[in-house]
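[audit] Reproducing an earlier prediction to check determinism. Same input, same settings, fresh worker. If the tokens differ from the archived copy the diff job will pick it up downstream; this log only records the rerun itself.
[audit] input (144 residues):
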Amino acid sequence: MSLCEENFARLSRLVPDLAARPSGVYGSRCSDGVDLYLEIVDQAPFTTILRLTYLFPVQGVTLPDPDARLRVYHDAGQVEVIDLRQTVLPLRADYRAPALAEKWQANVFIGKWLAYCLKQGRAFGQEPVTPPTSASGAPVTLCP
């Protein structure tokens, strides 16, 4: 639980007004890194479901990696990993035992990623952005 609280604190520093933002995609540019995208999928009075990803252009295709879906509990001050797709850690999507250790690893990964974003000085603009398009001109779907 303390790891989920730490991740909430990190995310709150990265997006201080998360609970008040409308649904949409928000971007964060960094001079020495790839653009970071945050998609607010659903807002409820006490929770937010969001997606966080980098979009890498690779041979005419845009690939999200890492690609995280998170549930933020504003009242409890917790961040729960719902889904994490990335190329670094081999994780199962099903978090029932014995995969609880893998869910812990996913939370550690998210914590390190958020800390890295804060160290880079990342911030998200107040207005939603249009995500980049693929080489074919089709919009890129964040975290399908």
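[audit] rerun output stored. Observation attached for the diff report: Helices lie at 2-14, 100-119.
[audit] end
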